[in-house]
Amino acid sequence: MIEKINLNNILFLDIETVPEEENFNSLDPEMQSLWDLKTQYQRKDDFTPEEFYDRAGIWAEFGKIICISVGYFTIRGDIRNFRVTSFFGEEKKILKDFNNLLNNHFNQPQHLLCGHNAKEFDIPFIARRMIINQIAIPDKLNLFGKKPWEIPHLDTLELWKFGDYKHFTSLKLLTKILGVPSPKGDIDGSQVAHVFYVEKDMDRIVTYCEKDTIAVAQVFLRLRREDLLIDEEIIHV
Question: Which UniProt keywords apply (predicted)?
Fold first, then answer.
């Protein structure tokens, strides 16, 4: 029962990813060929590999992480705060900083990670990029050999599915129907690569990522039938 979980033990998170190179022609010939093979099914005959490259950020083999935002509750008595912070910049440093956070502050058995579709996307993506960057995977992310029901982390998409594994609901839709203030600002996921490579506006991406992290926490509160966070309770650090 999620109502019995101590909110102080949950680390909410969201990541933003982009293609590892700005454009298809920046890939070496072997990677271009591998991208062609990797995306054959998704592209069918509708797109060339080059035309499809703007979606490379969703595959850890061809994308990279540019931001990880995390949030956690601090509840003392009747005072509730939600502290949000972000790791961004060079990918290897992002991953090392996130690794340190998990190892130093969220490494106990009672600690849980929570994201929207995090079990299928965020957590595997982070772990794969850590391997690629030769960073030791922290225990909380080392899920090798575990069956889906043995993974202790929380996922608001999975909680909403209620066992209906063919069902997908976006975070944007879920916040709408649950009466959570919309997390989306002036960009969406499909625009992140353009904002990163062309506009070079990292602050805009960090804001977008943090809004999603807050939204995941809000959805989790709603699933527990608890009061939503108000602006005064959210602290950006």
Answer: Exonuclease, Hydrolase, Nuclease
Cβ atoms of residues 17 and 27 within 8 Å: no
Q: In the numeric block, which tokens belong to residue 205? A: 């991406």
* Helices 122-132, 91-105: inter-axial angle, 10-degree rounding: 110
Burial label for 57, CB within 10 Å (0-12, 13-18, 19+), is buried
Our measurement of the distance from residue 209's CA atom to the centroid of its chain's CA atoms, rounded to an integer in Å, reads 8
Beta carbons of 98 and 127 less than 8 angstroms apart: no
Mean pLDDT over the full length of the chain: 93
**3-state secondary structure at position 148:** helix
pLDDT of residue 185: 66
Q: 53 pairs with which residues across the strands? A: none
Distance CA 197, CA 24 (A): 13
Quote the tokens at residue 79.
Answer: 């005072």
Taking CA atoms, 188 is separated from 59, 157, 171, in Å, by 18, 18, 12
Inform me whether the pLDDT recorded for 112 exceeds 70: yes
Tokens representing residue 18 in the block: 């982009």
Strands (E), 46-78: 63-76
In total, the chain counts a number of residues equal to: 237
CA separation for the pair 143, 119 (Å, rounded): 10
* 76-106 tens-digit pLDDT: 989 999 999 999 999 999 999 999 999 999 9
